[in-house]
Amino acid sequence: MRVAFLGLGVMGAPMAGHLATAGHQVTVYNRTAAKALAWVARHGGRAKPTPVEAVEDCDVVMMCVGNDDDVRAVALGPKGALSGMRPGSILVDHTTASADVARELSAACGERGIGFVDAPVSGGQAGAEKGALTVMCGCDDDAVFERARVAVGPYSRACELLGGAGAGQLTKMVNQICIAGLVQGLAEGLNFAQRAGLDVDRVVDVIGKGAAQSWQMDNRARTMSRGEFDFGFAVEWMRKDLGICLDEAGRNGARLPVTALIDQFYAQVMARGGRRWDTSSLVQLLQND
After folding, report:
1. How far is it, in rounded angstroms, from Cα 144 to Cα 124?
2. Fewer beta carbons below 10 Å: N end or C end of the chain?
3. pTM of the entire predicted model
4. How far apart, in whole angstroms, are the C-alpha atoms of residue 74 and residue 12?
5. Residue 207 sits in which domain range?
């Protein structure tokens, strides 16, 4: 297929790379042009200086940018993607953003005869690099979703339709709410084990075979116990995501007391200079209280 990928951050760059490896004709755009040129030097394809130029004659356009404002700028701005996409093509937005902006984009695409899927992902940088992301989708047209599912295949291990436009973003909110609680629980458990004089690695080996097991425990417990956070999913990104969750909860009436508390813990991590630390750095507040 002829595809465009807009946004080449720590997630987008490897995702686009898997598309190139799969044999698709890939055109890329990034706000920092040097990243796009470096990507082309590694993977081939083409780089374009604006979204509207990147999407020309493409069958599918993938986007993975920062937040709602970035989504609007890249898709709907004066040189945005929708200005150049042809009817019958599909826009797949992998950005973690609000359900409102997903519905806004869906409507804008519909007016132009373009398919739209909001498709935030889970799996982090490691999942993107391994081509093993979970993709949570919202789409108003089953046929459009099935075409999008094929397109994202090179970098996904699961891609599911959860409902109409916005449902993918709402599902990603559930994902982030659950992760926040898991990381805080793991942080408290590990800190307790350390202060009790236990061998943390052995403790994790044992309880990781039981009901306490989680992805966070398998992949973060040992680095947490050693105070290593210079990798992974940044705290500032998690705060952005939790802010979206809390805003949506304010509209739908869901109570998120633990999520709100953990969001404030992350604010404390940022105040300690941990803006770019991995989300597992919650334990740092307990280890150094």
Report:
1. 26
2. C
3. 0.95
4. 14
5. 170-287
